[in-house]
Amino acid sequence: MDTALTAEQHEIRRTLRDLLARHSGPEAIPAALGTAEGYDPALWRRLAGDLGLPGLALAEEYGGAGCTVTELALACEETGRALLPSPLLATAALAAPLIAALGTPDQRAALLPRIADGTLTAALALPGGSLATALGLTGDNLDGIWAGGGRAGGIQAHGEAGGRRLYGEADRVLDGHSAGLLLVAAHAGGYPRSRTQLFLVPGDAPGLVRTRLTALDETRPLARVELRDTPAEPLGADDTADAAAALADAGRTAAAILAAEAVGTAANALERTVEYVKTREQFGRAVGSFQAVKHRLADLYVRVEAARSAAYHAARDPEAGPLALAQALEAARITTGEAVQLHGGIGFTWEHDAHRYLKRAAGDELLFGPVHRLRDHAAHRAGLFGPATAASGVLHGAGVR
């Protein structure tokens, strides 16, 4: 497999890195987090309007760039390096693919151009509090129990087509407090026609209550979404369509993008640590000159580069997405933990960015992992412990450890 990047892909990376470098600084992240949106709206308009990030992987007919998942993954690798608070992941990696896959022609025409130009942000509201479960990353999501299977629990949809109303709540909704559009997974059909279905809910819909939550990683704003007899429009023309399979497909692609973002986080944490140990002196010499420190940094470099290779492969073959995500999350957790240790006492202080990188790594594993369950489910899908539950190609290009 040729993993070399094209000239256009290199240009996307360079342009985005330069722009984010100009908007970084000690106060940039706290200032962005202090806004009502949880990110810098002016910077988001530049990222969307000038660079077209939310539309990278959308078709040109909807105002997108017509690129592939690889370009979006490269962009997210750069935002991961900068720990950029933005609605890019929730909008472009989670919500937009589902609208493109399931939406009616009218829904796609109305929503995707606004997503592509950044004027509409979106969030995926899934009951049960586990994105990894609902997206089919750590277990089978086809039974719909996570969405409130049966007569109660989760989020319930009532009424007939064209007059649906939702009741229930979803916790830990990524960017759910500020998104202009919510894609809500709800249980429909009652007991006899039980199914999981996706619904479109505008951010200003009556009966919608959104509360921003305190999160381990402040750069990933989370919200509780409560729906109290809230009007909603089914996503797609077929009112009986089951959304679980579409969520699983979107989950594998999102896993590849998340893996690239986690690689960016780990890589920048490592680069910052290398620069620090070059200048920090102990016993009259630079800390980085000690052989034990060199060995630790070398091990981290190998781990990060291996995770990058897996992430790039998964961007081209999303079937490998969950395994690549497992490798990238593990690399980010270990690398950022070592970064704090090698920075010494200053790495534990609020004034230093090392703790932010560690919290990003830990928070992502809580949201999309844990690592051992990602690997376990991928192994079961590939048939390592019995009959395969999906195409065995999931392991191609990535290993189970």
UniProtKB/TrEMBL annotation:
**Domain Acyl-CoA dehydrogenase/oxidase C-terminal residues, every copy:** 257-381
List the Gene3D superfamilies.
Acyl-CoA dehydrogenase/oxidase, N-terminal domain, Butyryl-CoA Dehydrogenase, subunit A, domain 2, Butyryl-CoA Dehydrogenase, subunit A, domain 3
Q: What class of enzyme is it?
A: oxidoreductase
Q: Which residues, if any, are the signal sequence?
A: none
One of the Pfam families matching this protein, by short name: Acyl-CoA_dh_1
Give the cofactors, semicolon-separated.
FAD
The UniProt GO MF terms for this protein read:
oxidoreductase activity
Acyl-CoA dehydrogenase/oxidase N-terminal domain residues: 6-118
User: Which UniProt keywords are listed?
Assistant: FAD, Flavoprotein, Oxidoreductase
Q: What is its EC number?
A: 1.-.-.-
PANTHER family in the cross-refs: ACYL-COA DEHYDROGENASE, ACYL-COA DEHYDROGENASE FADE28
Family recorded in the similarity comment: Belongs to the acyl-CoA dehydrogenase family.
Protein name, please? Acyl-CoA/acyl-ACP dehydrogenase
